Every structure is written in C-alpha cells, then in structure tokens.
Description:
Two copies of one chain form a homodimer. The first copy, chain A, folds into two domains: 3-67, CATH 2.40.240.20; 75-232, SPOUT methyltransferase, trefoil knot domain (Alpha/beta knot, 3-Layer(aba) Sandwich), CATH 3.40.1280. Chain A contains six helices and eleven strands. Chain A has helices at 18-27, 85-98, 120-134, 148-154, 195-203, 218-232; strands spanning 3-5, 13-16, 35-39, 44-53, 58-67, 75-81, 102-106, 141-142, 160-164, 182-187, 207-209. The interface between A and B is large, with 38 and 38 residues.
Amino acid sequence: MKRFLVDKIDGNNVTLTGAEHNHLHNVLRLTEGTEVILNAGDGFDYHAKITKTTKSSTELVILNSTKNLADPKVSVTLFQALTKSDNMSLIVQKCTELGVSKLVPFESKFITAKDKNGKADKLQLVANQSTKQCRRSVPLLVGQTLKFNQMVSKLKDYDLVIFANECEKTMPLNCDISKYKNIAIIVGSEGGFDKDEINAIVNAGGKSVTLGNRILRAETAAISLCAVVMYLMGEWNYEN
Amino acid sequence: MKRFLVDKIDGNNVTLTGAEHNHLHNVLRLTEGTEVILNAGDGFDYHAKITKTTKSSTELVILNSTKNLADPKVSVTLFQALTKSDNMSLIVQKCTELGVSKLVPFESKFITAKDKNGKADKLQLVANQSTKQCRRSVPLLVGQTLKFNQMVSKLKDYDLVIFANECEKTMPLNCDISKYKNIAIIVGSEGGFDKDEINAIVNAGGKSVTLGNRILRAETAAISLCAVVMYLMGEWNYEN
C-alpha cells in the first residue's frame, strides 16, 4: 500500500496538497476509492481511503490506525562532515533505511564539497522518500549545516559519542553499547580531519574508534558504522 | 602513494601495460623517479620506482616489499541476486572496501535487471579500482553470473551460509560467528525471492535471518549485512 506523509492528523478527514498530492495524483495516478497509508510522524500508520482527488488537492477519510513497527526504538544522530553532494544523498537515503533519527551535516577544515549550505531541504526530500520506502512513520530529520565548533558543542547532549577516527590504531568499536539510549556518531568527509579537530572531538567526549585497516570512503564509513551500531542496539530484531 | 595492480611479480623488474599503464601515464601523468606500490594479489605491497614510461608501457624496479595489512583475514563470499546495474556497481565497490573476498551474481525469479550476464568484466574493474583505493593487495573477485540452482549447489562449500530473508520474522543474525572461517551471504534483488527459492536456500543449509522491521533496498541489505558480518568477524580491529 502506498504511503504519504502529512504534517498532522486532526479528525478523520485529511487534505493532501503540495508534493505529496502531486505524487499521488500526477505520478501514481491513484483514484477515488484507493486505500493508502498516511504517516504524520507520530508513530502510527493511518489507513485511509481517497474520497476525492482534483488537480490541486486530494481528500481522504481515515479508516483506522495501527502502531508503526518500523520506527527505530533508539535515538541515533549522525554528525556527518559535508561530503560531495551525491554521497550526502546516498548517506541520507541509507541511514533512513537503517533507522537513524537525525543527520546533521557540518563543516570541517578539509571538506571539498563546493556547496557548504549542505542543501538541507533537498536532503530532507531524499529522507522523506526513503522513509516511505522503508515504512517508517517518522522521517529521518536533516538538520541545518553546523560550523565545526557548533557541532562539538552539541556532543554533551548524548550518552555516547562514537567517533570514526582514521588515525585511531587501537580501539575498535565496543560491542557492548545497547545500554545507551541516545547515541551520536561522527564521520568525516573525503578529506578527513585535521589534528586539532580530532583533539577537539576527543576532548568533548568523543570515543575514538578504528574501523580496521582498510581505508573506507566517507560514505562507506557512515553507512557501515550506522549499520553496525543499529545491529548492536537490537534494531535488527524483528518485532511482531 | 599510488597503487597499481599487476598479474605477477617475477624478479625485480616489472613492465606495466594496458589499463594500469594508461592510468599511470595518461591520467595521473607520473614520471620517471616517482615511487608507487605494486600489488600482485599475493598479500604483499611491492614498493617500486618508475624507471621509464612511454606511450605504450611503463618500466619499474622493485625497491622492497612489505606485508599488506588491509587484506581480509577471513573469507566471505556474497551471493547477490542481480540488481539494477548501478546498484550492482555500488555493492561491488562497498563490499571491496569492507573486505569481502568474492561476489557471485545469480539469477532469481523476480530479478528486474535487464542485463542478465551481470557484466562481470565491468564489475571486476569497479572491484579493482576500489581494491587500490582501500589499499588491499588482493582484489575482490567477481564471479560469473550463476543460475539459481547453480548458486544453491555451491552453498555446501561454506561453514556458514547467512541468508537475508525478508520473510523471516524470528531469527536475527547471531553475533557469535567469529568461529567460522568461510562464510557465504545471500541477498536478494529488488524483487525479493519466490517461496520455492526461499525453501531451496533453507534446505541447502542457509540460515534464514531477519534484518529487522524496516524494508531495506537490495543494495542497502547487501552493504549493511556485509558490514555487520565483517565487524563480528573481527575485521574492524586494527592490525599494526
């Protein structure tokens, strides 16, 4: 059943406009009577039926609601140094599927990305699309791009900060992380981090870890570290 | 230091021709006296110096050799149902970085890929490029595309066969897999598997596992499952 994101569900009647209406009406060409699922980011799947669809909007009536089981049970935020635009989209898409709650791009000394504002709006659309595909009800949230020091000042808000540090030669990722509730992951750009940046992250409580002897591309490091963290947090168990 | 793949190292003098010579001479424009690393797939890094480079070939002399530390210590083979071509390239690239030894494409009932021969030669080039980037000496080997039944008949050669089964609602991936030496992973295409195919894999010894409640795209399942398996096998520990 096709899924659509709405801002809010209030009562039994919903009107879809904008991009989601356009997707329903002009791309998928769904018609009156078709049943779909609406997600309002509140942890529920709202089963609804199309009652009217016109050029400008679609009217739906809600039939019932069930708890969404695909939303992550843990809170993981990826702080990602700006990579090239295509890689940033790939990271957002894969991290949404993996159950990451928030992705915050940040600037660092050696970033090569030309567009430093990180195109949060465009990345949020990628996240929204991936949210529907993987059947979450709450989208991954793409934050505004932070300066390096702003990113570091946020780290105190987390129980555990895992820092993928290419200079780390000793500590692997500890598999015993399921006791934490609110985890941050930090991954660098294609250019890596400056020595002072590494020190700043570690001094702010970042647990420096190695991902082994192979040099991973920035997007590979982000996707595979998020996959392993989610696995260790029990997010690969199936809930009926 | 730039890396180049050669078929064989025999004595102290090496001649580079074909694609690797072209990359050195015409793309990177390296000149006489430049030091590079040669890999012949034997677990060593051969440090060499360019002695002569012409339009058709490059001559090098080997200075010394050291053990390559980026090659995987475990043997993992990914049997991947044919996905769309771009996704297949993405899987090969990422799995090379993650330390997978071999990738074998196979046909299944619901594949949508138009090109059923899987373009093994093109995928091997992706693997070779990624091998150099992540600093392995032995490339990931891309096998010829198998029929479904041929794939199933190969499974008896492995200590453990992990089968990412979207219909599995009970068993998660067991974290205690480091005792195995020779592991196979099976991941489906965008279209998933037919019920008979699922039964055939399980009957041949495939351990059906769930990756959780979120629906993962085929390439996300492949990359993230390989990442988790490599982590559990100790491949994210750093070796000095």
